[in-house]
Structures are given as C-alpha cells and as structure tokens.
Specification:
The protein has six helices and no strands. It is mainly α and about 160 residues long. Helix 1 packs parallel to helix 4 and helix 4 runs antiparallel to helix 5. It starts with about 25 loop residues before the first helix and ends in a 5-residue tail after the last helix.
C-alpha cells in the first residue's frame, strides 16, 4: 500500500473526512427532525437540555453553518419549531435559573422574539423622529442667529 502523499499526512487514519458543505437529503432531514423533537421533549433527571448546540454539535457532529442551513429547509423547519416549544417550556417552568432563563427565552419563544423586535423597531423610529425634530430646531436656531448677525453687520452709507 502506498503511503499518503507528503502534503496529506493528516489524512492518515482520519475517518471523519471533510465536513459537509450542504444539508442532508430530505429523508435524513425528516429523521433528524424527529430526533430533535424527541431530544427536546425528553426530560432526564440531572440533565438540562437547553441549547441547540448540544443536539447538533454533540449528538450529530454538525457545525453551526450546517445547522443554520438545516433550519431553513422546509422539511426540517416544522420539527425545529416544535422543538423550540419544548425547550421554551424548560426555560419557563423554573427548572433553569431565572437569570439564565430570562436571557435565553428570546431564542426559544418565537412570539416573544417577534414582540420584542417590534418594540425595538418602534423605539428606534421614535428616536429617529425625536432626533429629526431636534435637528430641525437646531437648524432654525442657527438660521435665526445668522440672520441676526447679518443684520448687525450692515454698514451705514
């Protein structure tokens, strides 16, 4: 058997190969979706299942880029949303420290996220409107001061 090429010594005894660059096939996505829902709903004593990366990285060895692509597929998305509800329940039921739960709940509760985004957008619109009004008032004051200065500079004949 020929040895690995000199520039490819890292390939020796490497079972993993190159990471995936695309999402799994539709049938596999459905099976993964079912597994995700089961994982999110399962409650084991002493184990907190509360982060997506525990499922996609630890359990299935996906990288974040693959995960993001998977949740955008129409085959996997329904399972992801069902699992979101299961994980959100864990954040609300007091199993997890309230300070941590408060921070993470936005990730798992789509309605909360949507509402907070709308509130944030409204707040930004109000800020922009106030800034525009303030800028207009400053410009009017500046013009009034310049007009006063121009009146004071008139030279008599």
């Amino acid at each position: 058997m020929m040895p690995a090429p000199l520039g490819n010594q890292y390939a020796l005894n490497n079972n993993g190969g190159r990471p995936r660059t695309s999402v799994p096939e539709k049938e596999e996505l459905i099976e993964l979706g079912k597994d995700l829902v089961a994982w999110a709903a399962e409650k084991k004593k002493g184990e907190l299942r509360c982060r997506w990366c525990e499922w996609y990285a630890r359990r299935h060895f996906f990288i974040r880029k693959q995960w993001k692509r998977m949740i955008d597929t129409e085959e996997f998305r329904p399972y992801y949303e069902i699992a979101q509800v299961s994980l959100a329940e864990k954040w609300i039921d007091g199993t997890i420290n309230q300070a941590i739960a408060q921070r993470y709940l936005r990730i798992y509760d789509p309605e909360l996220k949507e509402c907070e985004d709308i509130d944030s957008d409204d707040k930004e619109i109000r800020k922009a409107s106030a800034l525009k009004s303030e800028t207009r008032a400053i410009e009017e004051t500046k013009q009034a001061v310049l007009a006063e200065v121009q009146r004071g500079k008139k030279v008599p004949k």
